[in-house]
Write a structure and sequence with these properties.
6-stranded parallel sheet, alpha/beta, 420 residues, elongated
Length: 420
């Protein structure tokens, strides 16, 4: 079998999802390599704005939707047992169902029938044909591990770890969530050294870990050196309006900037559950004339906003439920475009931005520090231009999508990923 005959299955949750363009880029690259690609996903997002690759490669037709995890398991134990015989006879792969009921392998947990119904849901999907399964985010790698234990997946299992799956998810379900995955999985791909260290702490075999960063196609981002700063200065944030994005602290910092005579207009691209709360905060601080909520925008519109802005603010924080970022793609896009950036010492962000060299970093939730960094950008544009030039070089060096995706292809083709 040639490399181009490789069959690769991507296992994920919502697909396609506009906020997860990094998943789409890896799928797109695999298709371009000539691999036979399929996607196993829980549900579609239903967003009206779609990534061009979805239509170009007809990715929805390559996707099998299985519903929300666990939705196929009857809630009542009585119902589970009553429905079990008809479920058993409706499935072709009865050997997999018998394997799911083996108490010698799985102990008394088989009596809950959860593994039985999971197996029934997936065993007729034809997943055994794939040489490689790539779980996007830890929970979907864990799903792949369960399918592999049942003999439904037979190929190598790789899992990428991004952010919430190493923070919020583990706080919710416990640090043993990936125990089976660590035993069954063939390779583990954290997107940062920060998450690599966390995986080791959780008991993941060091020899099977390779840091596989997310990146951007630097060739489509034209570096534009900023001239004189606009008056008012154009500030930009992009992302879902959720706690970990830290938009609250940007708004509070800008109240201080305004009080010190800073002239700006702040555009916020994105939407989410905190929209009303953040709008109220803007009104509370009297910033209605300086802050605009733009909702979700197309990729072309986002590029235009970056061209027309003077500064990107990404004040990421650890949410109260433990949720954390990986390394935000919008920071890479801004740096590639020549847009100076301000962010925080959070998760893997310091692996992208070196404070005082390629941008500015302040501690999480440090409103005064954030305000001072913004004021410095307003008053010292030459310094910001130096940060921007260094930022572009950093993205080209370590976060170029083409090189990263080609490296990932090599991992797909590598039979044994053990690194020593």
């Amino acid at each position: 079998m040639s490399n181009n005959d490789l069959k690769v299955l991507f296992v994920t949750g919502v697909f396609p999802r506009m906020s997860e363009t990094f998943v789409l880029s890896q799928i797109e690259h695999a298709v371009k390599q000539g691999f036979e690609v399929a996607i196993l996903a829980s549900e579609a997002e239903g967003d009206t704005i779609s990534h061009p690759a979805v239509e170009k490669y007809d990715l929805v037709s390559k996707t099998r939707y299985y519903g929300k995890l666990g939705s196929w398991v009857p809630k009542s134990m009585t119902t589970r047992w009553l429905k079990a015989p008809s479920t058993f006879f409706s499935v072709k792969n009865k050997l997999a169902l018998l394997r799911a009921l083996n108490p010698l392998r799985f102990g008394l947990s088989v009596l809950s029938l959860r593994r039985f119904y999971l197996t029934a849901r997936f065993c007729d999907f034809g997943l055994e044909q794939f040489e490689v399964a790539h779980g996007q985010f830890g929970p979907y790698g864990a799903l792949g591990a369960q399918l592999k234990q049942m003999g439904i997946l037979k190929g190598r299992l790789l899992t990428s770890f991004h952010g919430y799956d190493m923070s919020q998810h583990l706080k919710k379900v416990g640090e043993q969530a990936y125990s089976d995955l660590f035993k069954v999985g063939d390779g583990f791909l954290p997107i940062s050294e920060y998450w690599r260290d966390r995986l080791v702490h959780l008991g993941c075999p060091k020899s099977k870990i390779v840091v596989q960063r997310m990146g951007i196609d630097t060739s489509i981002y034209q570096f534009r050196e900023k001239g004189s700063v606009a008056n008012p200065m154009g500030l930009l944030s992009i992302g879902r309006l959720v706690e970990k994005k830290g938009i609250e602290f940007a708004i509070r910092a800008l109240s201080k900037v305004k009080a010190q005579g800073g002239d700006f207009h702040y555009h916020i691209v994105g939407d989410g559950p905190l929209k009303d709360e953040l709008t109220a905060l803007v009104e509370q601080h009297g910033l209605q004339n300086q802050v605009s909520f733009l909702g979700w925008q197309s990729q072309a519109q986002i590029v235009e906003h970056m061209v027309n802005s003077d500064l990107m603010i990404t004040p990421s924080v650890t949410a109260r439920d433990g949720d954390k970022e990986g390394i935000p793609m919008v920071l890479m896009e801004a740096m590639a475009s020549g847009l100076p950036v301000i962010s925080t010492y959070h998760s893997g962000i310091p692996e992208l931005i070196e404070d005082g060299v390629s941008g500015r970093l302040v501690p999480e939730r440090d409103i005064d520090g954030l305000a001072n960094a913004i004021l410095q950008a307003i008053h010292e544009p030459d310094q910001s231009r130096r940060y921007a030039a260094a930022g572009r070089k950093q993205v080209e060096k370590s976060f170029d999508l083409t090189r990263l995706n080609q490296r990932l292809v090599g991992l797909y083709q590598q039979h044994n990923m053990v690194t020593g």
